[in-house]
Amino acid sequence: MIDLPTAQVPGIYHRRIGEIVVTAVSDGYYDTPIAAYRGITIEEASSAFERRFQRVPPRISINAFLIRSKGRIALVDTGAGDTMGPTLGLLQRTLATAGVAPSDIDTVLLTHLHPDHSNGLVGPDGSALFPRAELVVSEADVRFRKDDGARARHTVIEQLRYYDHPRRQIAPYADRTKHARGEVFPGVTAVPLPGHTPGHTGYMVSSGSETLFIWGDICHAQELQFPNPEVTVAFDVDPEEAVRTRRRTLDRAAADGIPVAGMHVHFPGLIRIVRNGSGYSEVPEIWAYEMA
């Protein structure tokens, strides 16, 4: 009897940007409660997913990205580690598939301090999983997560998820942390994208005439937030600013025609944005066997 496969090939995808190679690496997925989306009814949101043949509740990719430039390797975001269930925490496995050991990574660039982006910084014992890496993270995000007054206004679960976890994750990197400002890695520039969190940050990858914009959490659910950028999520610290930032970012991506990469765009997360009436739509990048 033939054994049937039970898992996919580990998720990696390479994309050349001039002399730089960016590799999408999957940390897995999670199913987001439909009620997490705001500015739209549950019925409207469910219908929007179903029209696109998506499941309800929606299954959301958790992506990270390797950047190889000038003989160095950076990692943008670290996934959820062992903190968000069995469908996440695959990053170390996919890094190995990509031929990269944690000790090969000399820079970790964080888009923000949320569990699915930064909880892969340390292991169960609290030790750094990237022993040689310098940590790059927004000063505003670190300051916000260390604010005891803000922490006290949240539930015990929220305190653990949004304050205690980030403090634990960044602690082993305290003596090798720098602010996400300006050029943070060869060919990579930090771009402030506030709203989702105070220090939410994107990274513009540039080499020669080519660019790729890694935009973090500009979008959580493309089926909802591209056609209607006013839709927010419960995890937005400042929903109104998140909407302004999303509209501005989508406008620029559509006008410039540049490829973008998102942490929650369906894996491998590489798309282009086009205007579609009062909203936008995405054009997925076509898979290529060889990098151009």
Task: Kindly list the characteristics that best describe this protein.
alpha+beta; seven-stranded mixed β-sheet; 292 residues; Metallo-beta-lactamase, Chain A
Could you explain how this protein is built, in words?
With 292 residues, this protein is of the alpha+beta class. The protein has a single domain, classed as Metallo-beta-lactamase, Chain A, CATH 3.60.15.10. Helices cover 24% and strands 28% of the residues. The strands form three sheets. Strands 1-2-4-5-6-7-8 form a seven-stranded mixed beta sheet. A seven-stranded mixed beta sheet has the order 9-10-11-12-14-15-16. The chain has a two-stranded antiparallel ribbon with strand order 3-13. Helix 3 links the parallel strand 6 and strand 7. The protein is globular and about 45 Å long. The termini are far apart.
